[in-house]
Amino acid sequence: MPILPTDPVALSVACAILGLLVGSFLNVVIHRLPKMMERDWQAQCAELRGETPPKTEPFSLISPRSRCPACGHQIRALENIPLLSYLFLGGRCRACKAAISPRYPVVETLSGILSGYAAWRFGPTWAAAGAIVFVWCMIALTFIDFDTQILPDSITLPLLWGGLLLNLGGTYVDMQSAVLGAAGGYLALWSVYWGFKLATGKEGMGYGDFKLLAAIGAWLGWQMLPLTILASSLVGAVVGIVLIFFARHGRNVPIPFGPYLAAAGVIALFWGKPLTQHYLGLF
User: Fold this and answer.
1) Quick check: 219 and 167 in contact, CB under 8 A?
2) Mutual orientation of helices 126-148 and 258-281 as an angle, nearest 10°?
3) Alpha carbon 8 to chain centroid distance?
4) 283/279 Cα distance (integer angstroms)
5) Pairwise CA distance, residues 271 & 280, whole Å
């Protein structure tokens, strides 16, 4: 049932613009959410030690206002227009001329392009709305995991439940496939984790990876799990080799797996069925 404008071009453009705007907010989530989690952990540890948690200024996704990390200059509305402000300012702070990370426009561009494509791919339906939210979550998780090697439960768990709820009406797959996908996604990496730990005595991945694959399974069904695992492993292996040999990334330095799971999840969302059919057709 259509829930958005039916003209595909207008719909895609509108969703791309929305994606750019949300991409600006995703940059805030990527930067602040890990710091908020760290503050919560410190407060909990203080309480366990019987101490009074230290008082700090309010810090959330909406407060305080964004500012330059180099000089503290508050970012005004005209300096925070997705992509355009970065280009107009030449990638530098208006006040101190410190360089602004290119990650900000990259996140905004990814969000805009994928949001517009989701609208084009699924049309004016709940599937398009869900796909847009899905890719927003994947972008946030990717960059948070790159920075901190953490996949926050505050994103992965609502994502998992959101997938199950959407599939109550068979938005992407039937409910049975969604439930089996959630359970199978979690148990697949849980088994790998414990097999690797028993064999080597080391932890090969974190529990956040289990939850992320469970969420992908809840959205796309158990049928997409083999493709997701295969694609994420291939991408992770290639990127890992490149980092080791060309970026002098130490072999003992852990490489987060979440970004590759997220990328594979987006691939499976948009092109999973034709890729799987093509692969099976080879046999």
Assistant:
1) yes
2) 130
3) 26
4) 8
5) 14
Q: Which amino acid is at 208?
A: G
**Environment class of residue 270 by beta-carbon count within 10 Å: exposed (0-12), middle (13-18) or buried (19+)?**
middle
**67 DSSP β-pair partners:** 74
For residue 64, is the peptide bond before it cis, meaning its omega torsion is within 30 degrees of 0? yes
DSSP 214: H
| Helix, coil or strand: residue 271 | helix
The overall pTM is greater than 0.70: yes
Sort residue 123 into left (φ over 0), alpha (ψ -120 to 50) or beta: left
Each residue's pLDDT tens digit, 153-206: 999 999 999 999 999 999 999 999 999 999 999 999 999 989 988 888 888 788
Nearest CA among 118, 130, 138 for reference residue 172? 130
Q: Which amino acid is at 235?
A: V
Three-state DSSP state, 238: helix
Q: Are 135 and 120 in contact (CB under 8 A)?
A: no
The string of DSSP codes covering 97-149 is -PBPPTHHHHHHHHHHHHHHHHHHHH-SSHHHHHHHHHHHHHHHHHHHHHHHS
In this structure, is the dihedral angle defined by the CA atoms of residues 8, 10, 16 and 21, taken in order, positive or negative? negative
Centre a 10 Å sphere on the Cβ of residue 85 and count the other Cβ atoms it contains.
20
Coil, strand, or helix at residue 92? strand
CA distance 98 to 70: 7
The answer to whether the Cα torsion of 4, 17, 165, 40 is positive or negative is negative
Q: Encode pLDDT of 46-78 as tens digits.
A: 888 888 877 777 788 888 888 887 787 888 888
Cβ partners under 8 Å of residue 193, min gap 6: 203, 204, 205, 207, 210
The token duo for 101 is 């990370």
